[in-house]
């Protein structure tokens, strides 16, 4: 009887151990994959307008959400431009740096860029002409679009943002009209950015919103105007899914989203 009882105990122990063994990779629960056809947005435009200039999103986390993007860093310390998965910071003095993965972001748009439609424009364009051409190319104004456009610009006006100090006292309605402006001539580089429909107005910038980084990585910023842009090549990706994450900060929780402000859009 003792031997039988021992064998039963031994068998039970083996079965128990097998049940409690760590699962192999194949047996583990599948890791959720990020949908690469989503327009990703951190914070919302109305929060940004109402002086929520600090977020908790890290540069490394934004890289997991796309390969192109734009936005701004905490305390408005520079314009954010993401090109081919690399995050650049256009500082208030016009210089450009590559940010480290721990850098915090106040506001951002991003998407994985794989163009649905490619184009090459033979004519020269100013910004207004290009917007009209893109309207013809995309057709509908009821979807989101991500753009990546390379070219040479005879004259290009880039906007920066001045770094702010706490307590933040001025909103974007004051800062944007008085932002640092950098005029560039005969410069070659890439514009990345997005088109958002009018219905997204309180959440994001509507119309076209593009940021630029030069081929030599010495100039970057928000695209304000340009003239005589030539050799424009690139394309767009149509996006029908939209996701945003709100900043989980005490400042955002308490903010009164009373101010509204939009870029001059076309």
Automatic annotation (TrEMBL):
Belongs to the alpha-acetolactate decarboxylase family. Pathway: Polyol metabolism; (R,R)-butane-2,3-diol biosynthesis; (R,R)-butane-2,3-diol from pyruvate: step 2/3. It catalyses: (2S)-2-acetolactate + H(+) = (R)-acetoin + CO2. It comes from Lutibacter agarilyticus. Its EC number is 4.1.1.5. This is Alpha-acetolactate decarboxylase. GO terms for biological process: acetoin biosynthetic process. It is an enzyme of class 4 (lyase). One of its GO terms (molecular function) is acetolactate decarboxylase activity.
